[in-house]
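2024-03-11 09:14:02 INFO queue: dequeued item Na+-dependent transporter, len=332
2024-03-11 09:14:02 INFO validating residues
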Amino acid sequence: MTSTQATEPRETAQQARNSYRAVLIFPILVLAGGVLGYVLAEPLSGTGHLINPGLGVIMFIMGLTLKPVDFALVAKKPVPVFLVVAAQYILMPLVAVLVCWIMQLPPELAAGVILVGSVPGGTASNVVAYLARGDVALSVTATSVSTILAPVATPLLTLWLAGQYLPVDAAGMAMSIVQVVLVPVLGGLIVRLLFPKVVKIAMPVLPWLATLAIAAVVAIVVAGSADLVLEAGLLVFGAVILHNTLALLLGYGIGIVTRQSISRRRTIAIEIAMQQSGLAAGLAAQYMNPLSALPGAVFSVWQNMAGAIFAAWCRRRDRIAAEQQDVTAEVS
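2024-03-11 09:14:37 INFO prediction written
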């Protein structure tokens, strides 16, 4: 048991149930958005122009949850932050390429999977890191840094790795990321600095507002390619599960190889495996092909389910370790 874990207060049973309920409800709401988009495909088919505003709302809410102190870890402990962000933008895209090769995906789906692997870490990773008893401060900092780097990293990686499948407008994609990611995040951060009391009052509802916005974006994306969902659904779902699972395992392995603490191993795995997939779906719908947006939409649902499972596994390991420690203490 690490020193961090040793000093961490134990959650009550009610707190644990509330935590699991929160992380499980997120994918259910997003899944409901996808189903709604499919069922109401015709009336929603003309709402594609709302994708970017929806993404902007999500990023603004992310900015509201940030504080300048969240970036202090970069100066205090740069190595783990660099490790997570580097793996985020190196390992995840390369795993996406591997998945495309293994499954022999058609060009449109391959480009979408690679785009999912090239976007920054998702904000839900911070919640899952907490549930898994990971290093939450590292998770928040790494997500923030990868988001700031996204206007440069995401278009270049997509152009390099997905350009062989479909034409990629890297410049246009970079400008869109600045508009729907960087500007809203900075705006949210500034609003929190100017009106901290108001933001504090609104804080409990912000995750739910972000989830509803993600569900709305997924609904619009699915509506735009509803006629292709049944045809490509199983293939996309298989690619998403393989992509996410490999990233989770390899991320945890990186933590072991680099001799990180258990809490940081968990955080590295979570950060690498959980993406801003709503952003990927929106960018794919705008700059690629309706079919290319499906991996991002499906990933939005699956990553939260996988995160809940991983968090449960981590907590079970902690419980077993604690029980063994108690038995050892009684024997001695």
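2024-03-11 09:14:37 INFO annotate: The longest helix spans residues 294-331.
2024-03-11 09:14:38 INFO item closed
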